[in-house]
Amino acid sequence: MTLSMHVLVVHNRYSSGQPSGENKVVDQEVGLLRAAGHRADVFERRSDDIAARSLLGKAAVPLLVPWNPAVRAELAARLRAERPDVVHVHNVFPLLSPAVLAACADAGVPAVATLHNYTQVCPPGTLQRNGRPCSECVGSAPLPAVRHGCYRSSRLATVPLAVSLSVNRRRWWSGVERFFCISAAQRDVLVRAGMPPERLAVKHNFVPDPGARRSDAGEQLLYLGRLAEAKGVRLLMAAWDEIAADGGVGVPLVVAGAGPLEREVAAWAAGRDDVRYVGLYDPAECRQAIARSVAVVAPSTWLEAFGLVVVEAMAAGVPAVAAGHGAFVELLEDGVTGLLHEPGEPASLASCLRRITAGPARNREMGQAARRRYEQAFSPAVGLERLVDGYRTAIAGRSGGGGSPPPARDKGTGSRRGHPREQGWGQ
Question: pLDDT, tens digit, for every residue of 382-420?
Fold first, then answer.
């Protein structure tokens, strides 16, 4: 008998005009659950839909960030009608809000949440200000974020996020049975900030096997991601200028992505033989570009909570050059599956790029080691096991069963056993 679970995934999708690791993770996890025979449904909002709203509707969006009562009512009604075993919350900004947690409590359905960034302790979720690490708001009221205008360099835009963090902090901590941290580095930060450690579990994101694997030495270095300051784009440009001044490394730099620095990157790349800016790749183009690479470059200046592109490179048997902080230090073994550079240091990044391209034989060994690391830690099979185990722990915790088996339905009959009912928890 195969036990299948019914999971309702809650997510506010980011704009389709920019690459989003979170959107990708959500889609891949839903697909993984369905392929394994589980029922995975989705309750979502789309940031793309804001553009179609009336002027009044657009003006009202910031008011919905801390609390959206309509979402609470709609989600609670759906939960009561469908009775899923567990709700899996991802992003709730800006259209869903933490009201989704109240809806789960209204219907008596346990909730788990993946923490993709640091929004539990930092309004913009980056732990960074003006390109440098910042923890002023960690463990205290987020007034510094408002004073500095940390979200989109705007005090006004930061206010809804700061208010939401302040008024909903305890709701998150008490209303979620299990938080999935996507790295141990992220968990350490959140524990130090005062989040309940017993509810924080490390569950790395998985990556589907890309099918495309590197078969030769590679023909390019690849930056693949959002074109933003926090991702180290300006740092990469400075390092590459230093490399070019010394005669280059024999392969071009390909930059793929979109974001606020897009015009700056395009202007920098224009007219150069050693740089190609290619815009936004679709998923198939991303896989092919990675498989053609000597290495993937991830020079983030902020403390990445995970670093999906590094694991995507591993899956293709390609090493990475990444900043030596945040999650990268646990994803990459320096000198074995890739190279770690000094964060924020263009000379260190340039040195690593020279090293990764200078020895083809050593590079191939790194690529092979990276693929083995992927198979052991980031494959779909490993991802499914950790995901379902987290759900079972949350369900057992809500039902008071400790480590007992979770409520489940027999595949083929739809019958349910031991599902917790209507454990109310008000607003």
Answer: 999 999 999 999 999 876 544 333 333 433 333 333 333
* pLDDT tens sequence across 351-380: 999 999 999 999 999 999 999 999 999 999
User: Which residue range forms the structural domain that includes residue 110?
Assistant: 3-206+380-405
Taking the alpha carbons at both ends of the chain, their separation in whole angstroms is 40
pLDDT at residue 400, rounded to an integer: 56
Instruction: Say what the pLDDT of residue 193 is.
Output: 87
Helix (H, G, I), strand (E, B) or coil at 9: strand
Burial 89-101 (b: 16+ CB within 10 A, else e): bbbbbbbbbbbbb
Give me the sign of the Cα torsion angle 233, 204, 129, 262.
positive
Helices (H) and strands (E) in the chain, counts: 15, 16
Indicate if 201 and 302 belong to the same structural domain: no
d(CA 39, CA 385): 16
Provide the CATH number for the domain around residue 364: 3.40.50.2000
Element (H, E) at 3: strand 3-4
State yes or no: pLDDT of 1 exceeds 90. no
B/e letters for 272-292, b = 16+ CB within 10 Å, e = fewer, are eeebebeebbeeeebbbbbbb
